[in-house]
Amino acid sequence: MSAPHKKAICLFFEVHQPFRLKRYRFFDLGIDHYYYDDYTNESIIRRVSEKCYLPANNLLLDLITKHKGKFKVSFSLSGIVIDQLQLYAPEVLDSFKKLADTGYVEFLAETEAHSLVSLYRKEEFERQVNNHRALIKDLFGYEPQVFRNTEMIYSDQIGSWVADMNFKAYLTEGAKHVLGWKSPNFLYCNTINPRLKVLLRNYVLSDDIAFRFSNRSWNEWPLTADKYASWINKLAPKSELINIFIDYETFGEHNPKESGIFDFLYHLPAAILKKTPFVFMTPSEIASTLQPVAAINIPTPISWADEERDITAWLGNELQSAAFEKLYELTDKINQCQYEQLKKDWLYLQSSDHLYYMCTKFFSDGIVHAYFNPYESPYDAFMNYMNVLSDFELRVNQTCPTSEQEIEKLKFESQLRAKDEIIALQAKEIETLKKKLLKVNGTKKIRGSAKMKTETETSKKSLKEIAAEVVKKAGIKAPEQKTTEKTIKTKKTSKSTRTHKKQE
Question: Which stretches of 293-447 are assigned E, i.e. beta strand?
Fold first, then answer.
């Protein structure tokens, strides 16, 4: 065991915000392939950045400078929150990079999608963890050595997977039902692979800050840094390690600035360093410095959520189980897919928050489940998510087939669609030609009537000309019009006289 003065306190913050889904109706399936509520996502990330991330990061930077290496903290940034910060608040990522540059802030690895994939399959879990590990290395310049799973989920089996990936330590919950008589205030190790050190959260001290700080009905309100340090000091004789793991939104968002939360954080390092034997350490330093007192046996998964500290907040009812199963049925197809947008959607749909919104545990933990929840009910959350997932599945099946039968089916469907398009195009062309034909026929009719009139007149003219030519050729002199009329009149008079004489 370590020397008596080597008592460590580990201060860890989780940073995560999901991509919230827009209202997606059944009738949008196959038509609308964009699922996100951009306005809400940007509004929330900007608000949390201004109220929490930026002021808290600046405060931590001041504290690190002030205490000259004696104050250290650790963070876990989900891949999804990193994407949102790059989109909506890049200055926040810059402030995290400044913290990383101090050398006194450690960034941990987790699943890329802040997903529950560790409850599904080892290979997919490892793939997501390695992706997140590479992302952190790209952002902050070093490869994480410590792992913190989504929602602090841990079991002996999951811990052994993480050990096989060469992580030094794993952060999880100090759940009472698995600890029994043991204390969370020591370092433990994984039962399957003892090389992996396990840090257990002291949920009482953590929740005093995260959930009770602003509660005026709490008998310990108001909580000051000196009071908190005195509680830690009381644990010193029988403790070696105090792990304070909380949401980063605790500062400024869950507890507003007016509550005094930033003043509490500012005075906390000095109070602990002055009034307790504990020193601040990062998780990797703890794994290298302290020795585990025993293996911790956790055969079924635990988490840091709700009073039960299990996984029922995400998989506690039939709605959640159905959504979980439908989601991960698509894993093999997605892994063979080359479309980046589909892969992004796949990550964002895996966020544990979507299943958390479907939780029906509205009793002691109801207020917690309602925070940041965009839905009116768990059933509303389920229907919206399943509509989105159904459309996503249609896209995956169309673009990422896995079996020969599916490929042939898609080829046949593609051919049918192509023929339908040709038929539709030809039908359109036929209609266009019909219109043109009607127009042409109308023009021809008008032109035909004019032509007939012209031809008739021409014919009449031709007959007169022909008659004149015949008379001329026969040598007959055509009488003048007046003479002809006079001759006819004379003949009529002569005939009339003869008829009159005969009657007499």
Answer: 294-296
